[in-house]
Amino acid sequence: MANNDWKRRLGMVYSTNPDFNFTEEDSDQPSTLPKQQQKLRVSMERAGRGGKTVTLVRGFVGSDEDLAALGKMLKQKCGVGGTAKDGEIVIQGDLRPRIVELLHSEGYTQAK
Questions:
Q1: CATH value at residue 97
Q2: What is the per-residue pLDDT across 3-44, written as a single tens digit (0 to 9) for each?
C-alpha cells in the first residue's frame, strides 16, 4: 500500500464485509470535441472584477488540460495574462475581435 493511498479513499469509512475490496471510481473527464464542433462564445465582462475589463471564452467541451492549452495559446498570441478554469478562459483586456480571429485561424470555425 502506498504511503498516501488512504487519500483516494476518503469517502470510504469502514466495511464489515470480509470479502470487500475497494475499487476506485473512474473520473469522468469529458472527451474533447474536435475544433470544428466546438461552439465557443467570446464576450466581454467588467462586473465583479474591480472595474477591470476581461474577455471570456465560454462553451469549451473537453478536458481541463486541453482547455489550459487553448488558454495558454490565446494568452501568448495576445501578449496578456489570464486564466483557464471552470470551463472558461479569462483573458485580461477587451480583445474580442483578436481572439475570434485567432480561434478561426486555429480551426475553431463556430467561434462567435
A1: 3.30.780.10
A2: 666 666 666 666 778 887 767 665 566 688 888 888 999 999
Position 64 in a domain: yes
**Which one has a higher pLDDT value, 18 or 81?**
81
Residue 82 belongs to what H/E stretch?
strand 82-85
Separation CA 43–CA 1 (nearest Å): 49
Half-sphere exposure (CA, 13 Å, Cβ side) for 43? 8
| 20 in any annotated domain | no
- Does pTM surpass 0.85? no
Cα angle for residues 5, 68, 101 (degrees, 5° grid): 170
